[in-house]
Each structure stands twice: as structure tokens, then as C-alpha cells.
Specification:
By secondary structure, the protein is α+β, with helices and mostly antiparallel strands. It has one domain. It has one helix and two strands. A two-stranded parallel ribbon has the order 1-2. The N and C termini lie far apart (about 25 Å). GO terms for molecular function: GTPase activator activity; Rab GDP-dissociation inhibitor activity. It comes from Myotis myotis (Greater mouse-eared bat). Belongs to the Rab GDI family.
Length: about 40
């Protein structure tokens, strides 16, 4: 993954999704990785 992002949002709750949408609409390149893509579930 050689792309650059302005913001990386960890978590997929309501707050994170709303913030990601707002930042994206304001021209930021946002990465919102899917759950458990970095850490396995407990």
C-alpha cells in the first residue's frame, strides 16, 4: 500500500463514520480500514 492519506480513522462506530464522511466531503483523503484488518478478533 503505497498511497498517502490525510487522515486514517481507526474504528467503525457511528462517530468514526460521521467524522470520515465530513473529512472526505471537505477534500481530505481518508482511510477507514475494515474491522480486524490490523488485529485479529479476541
Amino acid at each position: 500500500m503505497d498511497e498517502e492519506y490525510d487522515v486514517i480513522v481507526l474504528g467503525t462506530g457511528l462517530t468514526e463514520c460521521i467524522l470520515s464522511g465530513i473529512m472526505s466531503v471537505n477534500g481530505k483523503k481518508v482511510l477507514l480500514p475494515p474491522p480486524h484488518s490490523c488485529h485479529p478478533p479476541h
